[in-house]
Design goal:
five-stranded antiparallel beta sheet, alpha+beta, 290 residues, seven-stranded mixed beta sheet, globular
């Protein structure tokens, strides 16, 4: 029986996307690389635990969950979390950003300055600009200011991001336009927190980093993994947690968060035999598992 591997998720390095595995092994992903794996037959998806600790219950989790955590571990993972507004005394400086994912899809968010642009890569931001930097609560107040005064959301569903990736404007200037316009409106707001230092407009474009230039339109995405199923295809693009794989049935998007908690084994083939969803409108002992 082939050795089963446990995926720890997708990370973005200076050289591109990297799949992480339990035990610290890494699989660098490059365009044209074949990605193929099977889900161990007869296995079940187990909770990945919280904050580096195994789930004390060894609980099973649903295949459609992107968090791969049971209710208790999910609660523990969000404890003392900036994203969940449960950590208010973090002394680190934070940046406020504007991120663009496609036409009409701009969001505001915050990230610790020491993380650089990692958060933007993890979210699949096609382009972004910093807005300001300062204490956590000042950054949070600025985020709330933009939401209230300019009606800018702080979340955009991944399903919406995926649907437009193949129909992005070709010119970088066109992709930057909405961020530029919103930046000018944001810095002109009168209630800007005094402790947040404004940063100059500089739109960073990730189309090249993600391999999205000329990417074929995806026909759908994987909705969940199941025991005995398989995923195989050629990597044509990646954005955030998503891998765009060219398969025998067309390009299919795999959210790598669905891989965590399963025992995965090597596979051959160029097809997807796990449940998928069609997009309503198609937008214009081994060295490792891969």
């Amino acid at each position: 029986m082939a050795q089963a591997w446990k995926c720890s998720g997708l990370r973005w390095s200076a050289d591109g996307p990297v799949l992480m595995w339990a035990g610290g092994r890494r699989s660098a992903l490059t365009w044209g690389k074949r990605v193929a794996f099977g889900v161990a037959d007869g296995g079940a998806r187990s909770c990945v635990g919280a904050r580096g600790h195994a789930c004390p219950l060894g609980a099973a989790v649903q295949g459609r969950s992107t968090g791969a955590r049971c209710e208790e571990c999910a609660r523990l993972d969000r404890a003392h979390s900036v994203a969940a507004d449960t950590l208010a005394d973090d002394p680190r400086p934070y940046r406020v950003y504007l991120a663009w994912f496609g036409p009409g899809m701009v969001k505001v968010g915050i990230t610790a300055r020491q993380r650089g642009s990692a958060r933007l890569l993890e979210q699949g931001a096609v382009c972004f600009s910093w807005l300001g930097v300062g204490p956590l609560m000042a950054a949070r107040r600025t985020e709330e200011l933009l939401r209230a005064a300019l009606r800018v959301p702080d979340r955009i569903p991944y399903a919406e991001k995926r649907a437009v990736r193949a129909a992005l404007p070709e010119a970088a200037a066109d992709r930057a336009r909405e961020v530029t316009e919103l930046y000018e409106r944001a810095v002109g707001l009168p209630a800007w927190p005094e402790s947040l230092v404004r940063e100059p407009l500089r739109v960073v474009d990730h189309v090249g980093v993600f391999g999205l230039a000329g990417v074929p339109a995806a026909v759908g995405d994987v909705s969940e993994l199941v025991a005995g199923g398989a995923v195989g295809g050629e990597l044509v693009a990646a954005a955030g947690p998503d891998l765009h794989l060219a398969t025998g049935a067309g390009v299919v998007v795999l959210d790598t968060r669905l891989m965590t908690g399963w025992g995965l084994v090597p596979a051959t083939g160029n097809e997807v035999t796990v449940p998928t969803r069609q997009f309503k409108a198609v937008a214009s002992v081994q060295d490792g598992l891969f």
